[in-house]
Amino acid sequence: MNRDLPTFVVMNVKQSHPKANTQAISAKLWSAGFLSPEYAGVGLRAGADPVLYLSDPDGVSRDVRRKMLDGLSELNQIQHEKIGSPETLARIAQYEMAFRMQSSVPEMADLSSEPESTFERWGEEAREPGSFPNTALMARRLVERGVRFVQIYHRGWDVHAFAPEVLPAQSRDVDRASWALVQDLKDRGLFEDTLVLWGGEFGRTIYSQGKLTPTDYGRDHHPRCFSLWMAGGGVKGGVVHGETDEFSYNITKDRVHIRDFQATLLHLFGIDHERFTYDLQGLPANLTGVEPARVVREILA
């Protein structure tokens, strides 16, 4: 599959506190921000209905459903011509997307077409809805079908305590599936056109906190420096960029600010961060902020 711009798969390691209102927080991760609503993401759930309300009502055929949406679109278009609201156009686009999803999501979410070799690579847990291997496999299936941005949300990394128990389990959960995703993309000729990003919103201190027993200790939040990895879509493989001091507390070499990272991602998408802005209520918004940002060309292929 050839693309003018790369597809983006984000594996987001969420480090918020387990008792935080993660439902409200996570909903913001796939909102459209200051863009219009048709650019918002669609969340997939575990279970028989990955996206709610996609099934046609009893007694309503697909043809009748299509006629209903056509009529509704005409009414919304009349409303838009009267008041000129972009929200009305977004509503039309969302109805159309929902109709396309009705015919595509059930097939995408059905793993019965996957050969046994898939689960030999990914592991049997990839069959379990809601597991990280299953969601990563769904990400590959979405990319195969032309979805341009996929985010996998993985909780439970806020290890203020019980790190010896929690971290190995979390690592086992993501390690094999992350490797399998990259290998599958390579096998299908999608790797060079897909940028895979694995990371979180901050790091952890190298020193411990808590009770400091052999089984019960943890690490605090650390925003000064943290790591992520990228693969595919225009980045070099097998390189490490950046160094910290011996305490992993401050960056000592090849510092990359978050705005530099954003500029680099935009560059990989074919967007010049210094020229691209979005007018929001009369104010041109720059996606890398108001301070200077640079593309980190040292990591580009």
Describe the structure.
37% of the residues lie in helices and 14% in strands. It is α/β, with parallel strands linked by helices and 301 residues long. The radius of gyration is 22 Å and the shape is globular. The longest helix is centred in the middle third of the chain and has 25 residues, at 163-187. The protein has 7 helices and 10 strands. A hairpin with a 6-residue loop joins β7 (243-244) and β8.
Describe the secondary-structure layout.
Elements: E1 7-13, H1 22-29, H2 62-83, H3 86-109, H4 116-122, H5 132-144, E2 149-154, H6 163-187, E3 194-200, E4 203-204, E5 221-222, E6 229-232, E7 243-244, E8 251-253, H7 258-268, E9 277-280, E10 283-286
Number-wise, the strands total 10
Mean pLDDT: 85
Order of helices and strands: EHHHHHEHEEEEEEHEE
Q: Total number of helical segments?
A: 7
Q: Could you give the order of strands across the largest sheet?
A: 2-1-3-6
Poorly predicted tracts of residues: none
Distance between the termini: 20 Å
Structural class: alpha/beta
Main sheet properties? 4 strands, mixed
Domain count, please report it.
Answer: 1
| Overall body shape | globular
Helix content percent band: 25-40%
**How much strand?**
5-15%
Radius of gyration, in Å, reads 22 Å
